[in-house]
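User: Fold this; tokens only.

Assistant: Input:
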Amino acid sequence: MTSPVWTAPAVVLWTELLLNSYRHWTGQDLISRDGTPEEQAQRLFHAPFVVVSHGTEADPVINYGNRAALELWETTWERLTKTPSRFTTEPMNRDERERMLARAAAQGIVHEYRGVRITTTGRRFLVERASVWNIVDAKLARHGQAATFATWTFLEDVNRRHKP
């Protein structure tokens, strides 16, 4: 039996950086910060809202997705964390996504984001009221970006539309 992903030391450290960054930009905590870093990592992984992040590569790769994100994107941790984050959006929506990420990079955080995303199985969904923020360390060096949201709606897939 393998250990849960949130117990991996790298995931615990990333969770702490992600949570500290959210507090830096908002002055609020994303989850209760009680307990050890490992307990906080478990709490974030099991939170009832989506949290997903990517690093700072030239073509950023997703490096974290909590259980809600894994379920929404219909994937596994192993597959999600090998996915370039641009692939969470259909090609026609990637320019809009890049503009939003650039805004977040410049401002530190963007609230009330709304956009269409796509699961690994091709289902489209509309994200609403998302927050996207820069993941920074204590010296404000940037390590990536993260997003959280609790509201989404699956959209009708034109390929699955019933034809009379």
